[in-house]
Amino acid sequence: MLAKTILSILASTLLVTSSLAQDSFVSTDGTTFTLGGSKFYFEGTNAYYLMNSAQSDVADLFKQAGAAKLPVVRTWLFNSGSDNVWFQKWDKSSNSMTINDDDSTGLGRMDYVVQQAAKNNVKLIFAFTNNWEDYGGMDYYTKNMGGKYHDDFYTNEDIIDTYKAYIEHVLNRKNKLTGKAYKDDPTIFGWELANEPRCDGGGSLQKSSNCNTNTITKWADNISTYIKSIDKNHLVAVGDEGFFNDASSSDWAYNGGSGIDFNALLALENIDFGTFHLYPASWNETPDTWATKWIKDHISSQSNADKPVILEEYGVSADLRDKIYPSWQKTIEDGDLAADAFWQLAVPCNPDLDEFALCSTDNDFKTIIGNHASAMAAKNN
């Protein structure tokens, strides 16, 4: 009887602790994230596609993430110009951007995403727009508002004001399922200004000759300050790939040519944490020596800035994962990087979602994801 009583007390304590953590906003303490007053190291994942997912798949995604000890999921909070599900669309008759709050075709779909994340003790990182043309992105604003170059998104005042209006709308939106405004919901880990901002968007709009690291840093300062003027509860990051700005380097990821200066962005007053990505094959880099240095260099930046940094996207082909991921993850664990999130968990299971997608039923999921998730969680004890 005594043993049963003790077990019951322990179970109740764990439930209360979990509930308190879920009801707390993520914060920072130097180079670490904190949650409910405790350290919050983690491995998370990405699932960019949730804005288009059926509710059954959304529910399953968060069940799987919770079961796999992946307490943070990063996803998109943008979808512009589509004829089916869309969050924003350019109205030619009024020459203005329309925001869609509909429950089945618009932002109302994200209410369920937030609700299901909370139900499974998972936090969300939301990106407000995309550098690339997928799901509209920056060029959707720029093309419809008379811009000539991709980087007009960062400098054209009318475009900036329209982008800010969308951000304000989202922050103040009241979730119909939870009753909470997004800006007041602790289920949300934080906001990202964009997914992978660069001077060049890779689409039909080219970059101008004027775009440089100062262009994007100034924009990031402006937008992050604006977000904080409305929402003082949540963390804010840029969402960049972590490129450095050393003009003497011959390596494109280090010489500032992309328009990103990781250290300058991380130093901004209203940027709370840094982000970087890692795709050696796509970047024509090696997955071993170069990638290890890339991680270590961002760990150094984390220390110098005294702010947390997340390796928030990474991927190699399936045939390399068993060898490469444990090596990267050991570098993360040994170097005390604040967090990481692999790209990406596929729900429903569809390895063809993209070349880096993983299913929780994959034979190697436990070894290359589960072991690292446990190791990161153990740092919180």
TrEMBL record:
<protein>
    <recommendedName>
        <fullName>mannan endo-1,4-beta-mannosidase</fullName>
        <ecNumber>3.2.1.78</ecNumber>
    </recommendedName>
</protein>
<dbReference type="GO" id="GO:0016985">
    <property type="term" value="F:mannan endo-1,4-beta-mannosidase activity"/>
</dbReference>
<keyword id="KW-0326">Glycosidase</keyword>
<keyword id="KW-0378">Hydrolase</keyword>
<feature type="signal peptide">
    <location>
        <begin position="1"/>
        <end position="21"/>
    </location>
</feature>
<dbReference type="InterPro" id="IPR045053">
    <property type="entry name" value="MAN-like"/>
</dbReference>
<dbReference type="InterPro" id="IPR017853">
    <property type="entry name" value="GH"/>
</dbReference>
<dbReference type="Pfam" id="PF26410">
    <property type="entry name" value="GH5_mannosidase"/>
</dbReference>
<keyword id="KW-0964">Secreted</keyword>
<keyword id="KW-0732">Signal</keyword>
<comment type="similarity">
    <text>Belongs to the glycosyl hydrolase 5 (cellulase A) family.</text>
</comment>
<feature type="domain" description="Glycoside hydrolase family 5">
    <location>
        <begin position="24"/>
        <end position="320"/>
    </location>
</feature>
<dbReference type="GO" id="GO:0046355">
    <property type="term" value="P:mannan catabolic process"/>
</dbReference>
<dbReference type="InterPro" id="IPR001547">
    <property type="entry name" value="Glyco_hydro_5"/>
</dbReference>
<dbReference type="GO" id="GO:0005576">
    <property type="term" value="C:extracellular region"/>
</dbReference>
